[in-house]
Amino acid sequence: MTYNEQNIFARILRGELPAIKVYEDDRTLAFMDIMPQAEGHTLVIPKTAAVTLLDLPAEDAAYTIQIVQKVARAIEKALDKKGIILMQLSGEEAGQTVPHVHFHLIPESLHQLRQHAGQMGDQEHIKRLAEKIKAAIASE
Ligand code: 5GP
Fold this sequence. Notes:
Blueprint: H1 8-13, E1 21-24, E2 28-32, E3 42-46, H2 58-79, E4 85-87, E5 103-106, H3 123-138
Antiparallel strand pairs: 1-2, 2-3, 3-5, 4-5
Helix pairs in contact: 2-3
Guanosine-5'-monophosphate binds at residues 8, 19, 31-35, 89, 95-98, 117.
């Protein structure tokens, strides 16, 4: 699928738009979802320009999943949560709204989720959660 360099996550990766980051290395970035479906909703993205999981080279997918695990562990620890949803929407037909491949981590029950990309969260509160998650990653 053709990659649009102007998508929001590409702009976040280039530093053109702000994001509340919890982890970054040379291949991936993890940051808080601006419209969380539950407290602690975090996104993990590879830096590779790929729209869907199916466009992502297998080795980038494998590496990103390691970071998904790292961030998921930190979320559970930092927010004292048990259980986490890993969601990945590939393609508009599946409901994908931002065309850069990403993994959602949501520490909540499937039955308690708020609407997808529904409502802006309290960004100050989200920043405080991010600080806790960052600290948990640093202590791993
Ligand atoms: P998708 O529908 O593509 O699977 O998920 C896109 C996610 O990105 C949604 O959960 C939505 O709330 C989130 N999102 C949309 N725009 C922004 C933004 O500008 N910054 C951040 N941090 N998240 C965003």
